Amino acid sequence: MSGRRGAAGMGEALQTGTGTLAAGPPPRGVGIRIVGLAKAFGEVQVLRDLSLEVRPGETFVIIGASGCGKTVLLKQLLGLLRPDAGQILIDGAPVANPGQPKRYRIGMVFQSAALFSSLTVGENVGLWLKEHRVADDGAIERIVTEKLTLVGLADKKHLMPSELSGGMRKRVAIARALATDPDLMLYDEPTAELDPVMTDHIAEAIVDLKRRFRITSVVVTHDLNMGCYVADRMGMLHEGRLVEVGTPEQIRRSTNPVVRAFITTQTKGMGGA
C-alpha cells in the first residue's frame, strides 16, 4: 500500500478541549466522510443511519457506553466490516472498494494493545517495516528508536511485552502504529483498564502527537474526561446513532438528556459536571 505523501491534569479535562485545531504545521491527515451508515448483526441493529465528517488533521472522539457500536464503527473505517447501508469515504475514496489503491495509511491502536508476546518491544514496533521491506535494517532500527522516543520508551526497546505495565504496552502500540507513517490514527478505548496515572500518560501522548504531526485521529472511548482532553470535536453515540456532535465544551453543556445522563454517570464523585 502506498502512502499519501504530499498539559492540564485529567481532573481539568472537561474544560480543556476547544474544538479548534491547534497551531502548528499544516494538517497532513485525511478527511473522513460517513453517510447514512447502517450495520446489523442478525436481529441486533448496531449502527443506524450514521453520518459524520472529520476534517483533515482533526482529533475526533466518539464517546458512549460499552456496546453502543464504537468498535464496530472503527472496524468499518478499517474496511474489516462492510456496512449494510451507507458509505464511508476516506481521502475521497470509498473504503468498501478493495480494488482501488489506497493513497493513505491507517495506524490502529487496539484496546488490548495486541503486541506479539514472542517479540521484543523494538521488534513489535518494527514488524510492519520489516514485513514490507520499506528500509534496510539500520534505517528500521533508527525509525523504531525514533517512534519509541516519541512515547517515552526508547530505553525499553529490548524488553518483552510481559515486562511492561499496561500503560507502557499501550504506548508501544502507539509507537508501532506511528512506524507505518500513517495519515489516519484510530484508537480503540486507549485508556481501558488503566489507572489514572497511566490514563494521563496516554492522553498526553495523543495530544502531543496531534501537536507534532497533525494526523487525523479518531478515538473511541467511554472515558469522558480523557475524550474531552484530547478532542477537537466529539460525538455521543447512543443506540447506533450520533445524538450530539460538538466541541468538548459544547458537549459538556449539552441539554440532550442522553448526553446529560452519560455525563452525570461519568462525573459522580468528581464534584459534578
Describe, in plain words, how this protein is organized in 3D:
With 273 residues, the protein is an alpha/beta fold. The chain contains eight helices and ten strands. It has helices at residues 70-78, 121-131, 137-150, 166-178, 196-213, 224-230, 248-252, 257-267, and strands at residues 32-41, 44-54, 59-63, 85-90, 93-94, 106-109, 184-188, 216-221, 233-238, 241-246. The strands form two sheets. The chain has a six-stranded mixed beta sheet, sandwiched between helices. The chain has a four-stranded antiparallel beta sheet with strand order 2-1-4-5, covered by helices on one side. The model is unreliable at 1-16 and 269-273 (pLDDT under 50).
Provide a concise account of the structure shown.
This protein is of the alpha/beta class and 273 residues long. The protein has helices at residues 70-78, 121-131, 137-150, 166-178, 196-213, 224-230, 248-252, 257-267, and strands at residues 32-41, 44-54, 59-63, 85-90, 93-94, 106-109, 184-188, 216-221, 233-238, 241-246.
Q: Unreliable stretches, pLDDT < 50, 5 or more residues?
A: 1-16, 269-273
Strand content: 15-25%
Question: What's the order of the H and E elements?
Answer: EEEHEEEHHHEHEHEEHH
| Lateral strand order in the biggest sheet | 6-7-8-3-9-10
Q: Tell me the number of helical segments per DSSP (H or I, 4 or more residues long).
A: 8
Name the overall outline.
Answer: globular
Helix/strand-derived category reads alpha/beta
The Rg value, from CA coordinates, equals: 18 Å
Helix content: 25-40%
Largest sheet: 6 strands, mixed
